[in-house]
Amino acid sequence: MALDFLSSLFKKKPKEEATPPEEPIFEEELEERVEDREENEQIRQLMERINEIENDIPRIKISIDTIKKQMQELRDDIDRLDKTIKDVMMLYEVISQEVNPFKDQMGQENPLTNEIQDLRKELEDLKLEIAQIKNDIKVLAGYGVDLDSIIYEVLAEV
């Protein structure tokens, strides 16, 4: 094509034929070739990115499965902790009411009783927090929030 163009420049042509029509065709072909190369480069880059993503998917799946297991372990630990706290509170109530009938009088005199009451308040606060966390997780799951994607985003930030 380029050879035809050059040979046409050196040939003697009648004045009726002008070279400008050939030049736009040549320019159009060059533009098409450049566009094709750009498109091919974009396609190549997209294919590379798709391959990278495909390679990352198994690792992401393993990470998600690990996080799910860890979350389940945490739920189990929280449930055990909650049960233990309830047992300790019931035991404390039984002992304090049965063993110490003068609990109210000693509370004012003994500084340890104040600390015990502070600990009791903190324990109640912890119970409320655990209940709120459970409710929040249930609400998020109820609204169809993708907890896995949230966990993945948090891990990506770390």
TrEMBL record:
<dbReference type="InterPro" id="IPR052494">
    <property type="entry name" value="Flagella_assembly_related"/>
</dbReference>
<keyword id="KW-0969">Cilium</keyword>
<feature type="compositionally biased region" description="Acidic residues">
    <location>
        <begin position="24"/>
        <end position="33"/>
    </location>
</feature>
<keyword id="KW-0966">Cell projection</keyword>
<dbReference type="Pfam" id="PF05377">
    <property type="entry name" value="FlaC_arch"/>
</dbReference>
<feature type="region of interest" description="Disordered">
    <location>
        <begin position="1"/>
        <end position="39"/>
    </location>
</feature>
<protein>
    <submittedName>
        <fullName>Flagellar protein FlaC</fullName>
    </submittedName>
</protein>
<dbReference type="InterPro" id="IPR009205">
    <property type="entry name" value="FlaC_arc"/>
</dbReference>
<keyword id="KW-0974">Archaeal flagellum</keyword>
<keyword id="KW-0282">Flagellum</keyword>
<dbReference type="GO" id="GO:0097589">
    <property type="term" value="C:archaeal-type flagellum"/>
</dbReference>
